[in-house]
Amino acid sequence: MRRLSQGNKIVFTINILAASLLFLACFTPYVSVHTFPPLSFLGLAVPVLVATNIIFFLYWFVGRKRQWALSFLALFLGYLALGNFINLPYGSNATFSDDDLTIMSYNVRGFNKNKNIDSETIFEDIKAFVDEQKPDIVCFQEVGYLRRKEYVDYPYKHLEYINNPNKVLMGIFSKYPIVKAELMNFPNTMNNAAYADIAYQHDTIRIYNVHFQSLGITPGSGRIKKSSSKKLYRRLATAFKKQEEQAKYVVEHGKSVGYKKIICGDFNNSQFSRVYKITAKDKVDTFKAKGSGYGRTLMFHGVPVRIDFILADPEIEVTGHKTYDILYSDHFPIMASFRMK
């Protein structure tokens, strides 16, 4: 520090803070929110912390200052603990074989019922998009009930009505027979999950469609500005705790059958979170296996994040993954393909 100019001393002080926060974020997936809630907040900030430390690393490295080692160490530890979240080649397009099973997950945000997007044709646009992509199974979150027969032209579907206008509805549509399906109905929350046992190639696959606890800070809602920092902290800490409980419930629920399982949906948290760590344990993340680029599925206050996932049992081979760049909802749809081993 003594050899640095006054300006660089200030820069390095900020650098120390950014590197320390990234280091602490490495523990987010491994520490329960019930034990130490603040770590869960750092999980959401990982993309920003990584980008910040890359900038600091380049700043010192180009200037031939040994302070580059701090951010380099933080990035290296972050990679070891959190994994890589950019897959190369960047921006390549997945192709899906007609012989493979394709599953799409999409939070359709009620087909724009609240007019969040300035368009009167969102319903028709999403329907045309699904018809064009032709997935074998479609999992919709926030789907609505009234126009259920019009969503997609599939012979088998599960969309259970709930006599509660604030409860999120989950739709599963399939080209293959649904042997059994149920709504899981998370208690004391607007969020929800459902599952369907689907007959495929002389076997049965269980598909979970989840919508974990919302954080209540949707971009554009203005809730952050209206809430005090203490109130916002309590709301988010409560949401993180519910997410963890819901994830554990889904995982435990899946142990009741010996079927191969695929979990997909809106986790309302990133791949650096505790909820993802719980749900993805012993599962294959289709984006990590076959995706490309950054894989963002939501723009969270200007920051691209991946909060929608498709996770498969390792006995199922992942053959493809794609994130679609269409603006019919606040989320971007994802689709993956599979082959039975």
Question: How would you describe the overall organization of this protein?
Answer:
The chain has 341 residues and is α+β, with helices and mostly antiparallel strands. It has two domains: 6-82; 101-340, Deoxyribonuclease I, Chain A (4-Layer Sandwich). The chain is built from nine helices and 14 strands. The strands form three sheets. The chain has a six-stranded mixed sheet with strand order 3-4-2-1-14-13. A six-stranded mixed sheet has the order 5-6-7-8-12-9. A two-stranded antiparallel ribbon has the order 10-11. β10 (298-300) and β11 form a beta hairpin. The longest helix has 26 residues, at 229-254. The model has no long low-confidence stretch (mean pLDDT 89).
Secondary structure layout plus pairing:
Elements: H1 6-25, H2 38-62, H3 68-82, E1 101-107, H4 109-112, H5 122-133, E2 137-141, E3 156-158, E4 170-174, E5 178-183, E6 192-200, E7 203-211, H6 223-226, H7 229-254, E8 260-266, H8 274-280, E9 284-285, H9 286-290, E10 298-300, E11 303-305, E12 308-312, E13 316-323, E14 334-340
Parallel strand pairs: 1-2, 7-8
Antiparallel strand pairs: 1-14, 2-4, 3-4, 5-6, 6-7, 8-12, 9-12, 10-11, 13-14
Helix pairs in contact: 1-2, 1-3, 2-3, 7-8
